[in-house]
Design goal:
Number of strands of chain A: 9
CATH class of chain B: Alpha Beta
CATH superfamily of chain B: Fe-S hydro-lyase, tartrate dehydratase beta-type, catalytic domain
Largest sheet of chain B: 5 strands, mixed, barrel
Shape of chain A: globular
Radius of gyration of chain A: 19 Å
Number of helices of chain B: 7
Shape of chain B: globular
Strand content of chain B: 25-35%
Strand order of the largest sheet of chain A: 2-1-3-8-9
Number of domains of chain B: 1
Strand order of the largest sheet of chain B: 2-3-6-7-9
Largest interface: A-B, 54 and 48 residues
Helix content of chain B: 25-40%
Distance between the termini of chain A: 26 Å
Number of domains of chain A: 2
Order of helices and strands of chain B: EHEHEEEHEHEHEHEH
Strand content of chain A: 15-25%
Number of helices of chain A: 8
Number of strands of chain B: 9
Oligomer: heterodimer
Order of helices and strands of chain A: HHHEHEEHEHEHHEEEE
Distance between the termini of chain B: 39 Å
Largest sheet of chain A: 5 strands, mixed
Structural class of chain B: alpha/beta
Amino acid sequence: MNLLSESLLELIRRTSAEIPEDVHRATLAGLEREQKGTIAASAMQIIEQNIALAKNKSQPICQDTGSILFYVDCPIGFDELAFETAAQETVTLATRKGYLRQNSVDSITGKNDGTNVGPGSPSLHFHQHRQPTVEVRLMLKGGGCENVGAQYSLPNEKLKANRDLDGCRKTILDAVVSAQGKGCGPGILGVCIGGDRATGYEFSKRQLLRRLDDRNPNPELDRLEQDIVETANKLGIGPMGFGGKTTLLGTKIGVLNRLPASYFVSISYMCWAYRRHGVALGPDFSIQQWLY
Amino acid sequence: MIPLTTPVSEAAIRSLKVGEEVAITGRLFTGRDAVHKYLHEGGQLPPGVSLHQGILYHCGPVVIKDDQGNWKCVAAGPTTSIREEPYQWQVIRDFGLRAVIGKGGMGDRTLEACKEHGCVYLHAIGGAAQVLAERISRVPNVYFMEKFGAPEAIWEFEVAAFPAVVTMDAHGNSLHKEVLAASQAELAKYV
């Protein structure tokens, strides 16, 4: 196996088995916040045990090892096709090793060939930069949380949501209440204001690559991000929808330009089992540094 | 934690109330989307699978073969249950289920079937695949592996002290309905 494949295999293993440190700090704070003796506290305790156990045993945090999303920042002249081949082969190997579930199904025949490779899987997003380094970020996003994602077109009369930030706020909070516990909360929201239907969802997922403890450089969006988390945590949905104080661990909002005729708010919900890691690769494709 | 042992009696199920935590010991069978659709369309359970007074687990596990050729479950958390809402009431009625384990809760038809036939919905912790796999001591069998693929197959699990919370009981109560109504009322204060 070449060094690129070895590095990608380790990235997949670690992403599937180990919660990033920024996320773990947030789940621990959630456990502290819940009242002792409640089923919400009990749920958070099991989540903490699970995080420790998965890491120690080097096994998937969640059996739904999710959509396999690679985000690659690469220099000009980088061979994307060779990377794609290596990623596909490594995903198949990681599946055989049990780091990933046999999780990719032909949508028409229902056939699951057990490789996790097929149209759209794994999904690769390349982005060139004027630096010599290659950075690979991986997100594994399960189906339960993906299914509660939502896209709103403003204005929305039912929510009394107009084409402004207050309207965006109303739609985001509506998505939280609609999701209840079904997305395996406490959750993390990636939001995109603007774009078209496809780029909006794509950019909302990309927000989930941000560190949970970073702050939005745009003060208005920063206020909205903090407000969504605070307000959501007053709604009493709680871990798993059991009731309780921890409904969201974070919200990240990005903005794209829109057409005058369109105003989309796209929301991707990430479960507490927030699996994303990243590596900076050296010239020989060995892992130089972990990014989270 | 209230201990539950399979096969489960109707009396034991009817004594459970929303919000109580249970620890299950005995036998579970998994079944998710493909199995529910199959049973709904009149499919028969394979010999060896009995759901009578039993517990069905909405789960698509990661299972590998160990060096001795035995199945070993390495990850087994619950999947979202609401997708089975069109079918669950019928499976409870026709196969004599006493409990369904999943996550996210289910709807009114399932709640009604729980009340009528003596069944409960048990919520396992979503994403807690390792904690829950630890409670699976043995995987004696798998059914419909070829037909449905590994995540959708019927896996037979022997479990010890498998933890879950009663979120829909046999008296018509649903924690999911309560939390939804309360959170909607609360949201109205902030928008």
